[in-house]
C-alpha cells in the first residue's frame, strides 16, 4: 500500500504567511490554500475597501493555485471571513466577477477581527489539479 505524500506549494512571488503555516499544501491532486489577506505580494501594500480587498485576496489565492498547477476554475470550496456582514453584497459582486461563472461551494461567516489592521475579508479554498 502506498501512502499519500503532502507537500507545501512554493513559488517566487507568493504572499508571505503571517505565521508558521504554508500558503498552500498539496495532497495528490488536492490543493488546500490557506486564508489569504489583501496585501499585494509585490508591493506589500494592503488594498483599501471591501471591493479592492476582495479582488486582491482572490488574486493572492489564484497565484498560489497556479503555483500548485491549478486555477480558480478548479476551486471546489471557499471559506469567506468578513468583518462586517453589511459588506456581503459588495464582496459577493467581486467574488462572482472574478470566478467568472464558476460557483464553488462556499461558507461565509462574520468574524470579530482578522489578523491585519484594516483587513475586511479573508478567503481560503480547496481546489484540485486537473
Overview of this protein structure:
There is one protein chain. 23% of the residues lie in helices and 28% in strands. The chain is globular, with a radius of gyration of 14 Å. The two termini are 24 Å apart. A six-stranded mixed beta sheet has the order 1-2-3-6-4-5. A hairpin with a 2-residue loop joins β2 and β3. The longest helix has 18 residues. It is an alpha+beta fold and 130 residues long. α1 runs parallel beside α2. It contains two helices and six strands; from the N terminus they run βββαβαββ. Pfam families: Ribonuc_L-PSP. Belongs to the RutC family. It comes from Corallococcus praedator. InterPro entries: RidA, RutC-like_sf, YjgF/YER057c/UK114. This is Reactive intermediate/imine deaminase.
H-E string? EEEHEHEE
What is the count of β-strands? 6
Radius of gyration: 14 Å
Shape: globular
Tally of contiguous helical segments: 2
Structural class estimated from helices and strands: alpha+beta
Give the oligomeric state of the chains in this entry, treating copies of one chain as homo and distinct chains as hetero. single chain
Largest sheet: 6 strands, mixed
- What distance lies between the first and last C-alpha atoms, to the nearest angstrom? 24 Å
The residue-averaged pLDDT reads 94
The helical percent reads 10-25%
Strand order within the widest sheet? 1-2-3-6-4-5
List the helices and strands and how they pair.
Blueprint: E1 6-8, E2 24-27, E3 30-36, H1 50-67, E4 75-82, H2 88-99, E5 105-110, E6 121-128
Helix pairs in contact: 1-2
Which labels suit this protein?
single chain, 6-stranded mixed beta sheet, alpha+beta, RutC-like_sf, globular, 23% helix, YjgF/YER057c/UK114, RidA, 130 residues
